[in-house]
Amino acid sequence: MRIRARATRIAVIGACCAVLGGALAGTASVMTVSALGPTSCVVNSNLDTGKTAGNTCDSTSGATVVTLRSAIEQFTANPATFTITFDASTNGTPILLGEDLLPQAPSGTSLTITGNGIGTTIIDGQHTDRIMTIGLSGAVPDVTINNVTLQNGQDALTAGIRAIDTSVGTLNLNGVRMTGMVVNGGHVNATSINYHLLNITNSTITGDQSTASTTGGDGVNDGEINAGTTTITGSSITSNTVTSAAGHYNKGLLDTSAITVTGSHIDSNTLTSTTNGQVDGIFDSSATTITNSTVNNNTISSGIGAYLAGVFDSSAMDFEHSSANGNTLTTLGNGTVDGVFDTGAATIKDSSVDNNTMSTGASGSSYGVVDTHNIDIERSSISGNSVTVGDLGEGNAIIWPRNINNILDSTISGNTYTLGRSATLSGFIYEAENTGTNTNFTNDTIAKNTLTQLNTVPTGGSFDIGTGGTTIFSNDIISGNTPSNCNGTALPSGSASHSLDSGTDCGMGSASGNLSSTDPKLGPLQVNAPGTTQTMAIDKTSPAYNTADNTTCPTVDQRGVTRLFAGDLLCDMGAYEAPLPIFVAPGLPAAGHSGGGQPGIPSMALWLLLAVAAALGVGLPLGARRGKRRA
């Protein structure tokens, strides 16, 4: 960065803005500014030269060449609602910046830069300076950038776009590709974007890297993006790397006050902190909402004594129709891993939290996969996750809530927990620190999870119920967990109904429709149509078939299939509702089969007709002989 030159330019431009917009320093008030010149420019040159008599879009100058830098300087000279577009002659040739672009204008003004596409309008920082520095103290315009590529910025604070004052202003990115941003500094403000309010739509941020060190700063890294309220829609933030110095914060990939992510991919990013540091997660926000998105295959690691706050470090979390799969969290020595979800209140619906890996060093601690205060899990899979705790470490359950907890229509299966020789664990699948409230498991399948301990047989079961509250099982399947399904302590009377225990250690007995020492005959863990998350199917041969309580069954199963459909008298235990038994009347054509007399599956309408006829004792001539028509 050219610090002296930038300071001089900002001072001169700031004085200009003060004349045009009033006294700007020390105030964040919105001003109304009237344009004193043109309100739009068409860039027709890929050169990076400033505004001169022959290089400006001011119609009074008679200019024939308009560069991007001169157009931005025209906006600074005439701040209002300003638009910059690009002539087709600029397509395909990058604009190679010699230093950062400087849109400076009062708050309440706006600048829109619209390119001709990410493959044709390319703004390249050449790894010599930041791409863009916006505004002044207390005065930041709203900026919208459309259909361009911003690449190869480099700086000690922020390499992409940075607002001088992050208490005002909105940045909108639409159809933008940001890539190749590099930050090496003492305190990284953000790798790509540092702004007050941020909206990212149909854009890609990829291949950026930042490293904070204690040389010339405090070693803190504020993340790939550091912003206030942020929305990300239809976008990808992938393959970025964020590193902090030993003993200092790495504030995660997306360090925001509140964030909403819809239809986007936050995948394959890497966050690293070394000895005694802290990594705050892919999301570090007070309120996080994620819908129809993926947060997959990210890697978070730290050194000895460090703390990993999970993938989602949020006070309030809403995660729906999304996946958090294949993420890896690793710490060494006595470091701590807080799980995939490290939240206050969390809602997980119609989602998968599968195949994540968490591991600690010799004396580290792991707080499972879902570490929350209040939890509501519905129609979701928490499966195939792996947790490893060192020889002298401490572990907590795969699901470790504290207060109000509801787990409904969900599959918890194939999770593994490995303990070192002297490590301790409270609960395996579930540990409740109840404070007088109930935990409700309803129509869940909790099966084939495995706990092992080096050189010994682990004690305790999958459920550590806790004290001060009651864990209630309704229509659940708890089967084949190793070493046992429950912790050996009988459940309080009436706390389980119409549930199945493949052993006896849950103490359900046979009252209230419960089944003990019973094999539910579960199918493999897989995605069963029409679902999108993993389930374990049953059929009519399963003891769990048509044995649940209709009054407590949800209306649909984990896949969204209606439970009490026509002809079905009782719903099934577990997260999967089996279809009606298949039968075929003699001579009945199969569905979709044009030939007669072949066995097959009747349509639902015909099945209902058969059922009604059977109830009324009326025979239907479904097996009539074929022959010639009589005259």
Helices and strands in order:
Blueprint: H1 3-21, E1 40-43, H2 68-77, E2 81-86, E3 95-96, E4 110-114, E5 122-124, E6 132-134, E7 142-146, E8 149-151, E9 154-155, E10 161-163, E11 170-174, E12 177-179, E13 182-185, E14 187-188, E15 193-195, E16 197-201, E17 204-206, E18 209-212, E19 220-221, E20 225-233, E21 236-238, E22 241-244, E23 249-250, E24 254-262, E25 265-267, E26 270-273, E27 278-279, E28 283-291, E29 299-304, E30 307-308, E31 312-320, E32 328-332, E33 336-337, E34 341-349, E35 357-359, E36 365-366, E37 370-378, E38 381-383, E39 386-389, E40 394-396, E41 399-400, E42 405-408, E43 411-413, E44 416-419, E45 424-426, E46 430-431, E47 439-442, E48 445-447, E49 450-453, E50 463-464, E51 471-474, E52 477-479, E53 496-497, E54 500-501, E55 515-516, E56 525-527, E57 534-536, H3 604-616
Parallel strand pairs: 1-2, 2-4, 3-5, 4-7, 5-8, 6-10, 7-11, 8-12, 9-13, 10-15, 11-16, 12-17, 13-18, 14-19, 15-20, 16-20, 17-21, 18-22, 20-24, 21-25, 22-26, 23-27, 24-28, 26-29, 27-30, 28-31, 29-32, 30-33, 31-34, 32-35, 33-36, 34-37, 35-39, 36-40, 37-41, 37-42, 38-43, 39-44, 40-45, 42-47, ...
Antiparallel strand pairs: 56-57
In short:
By secondary structure, the protein is mainly beta.
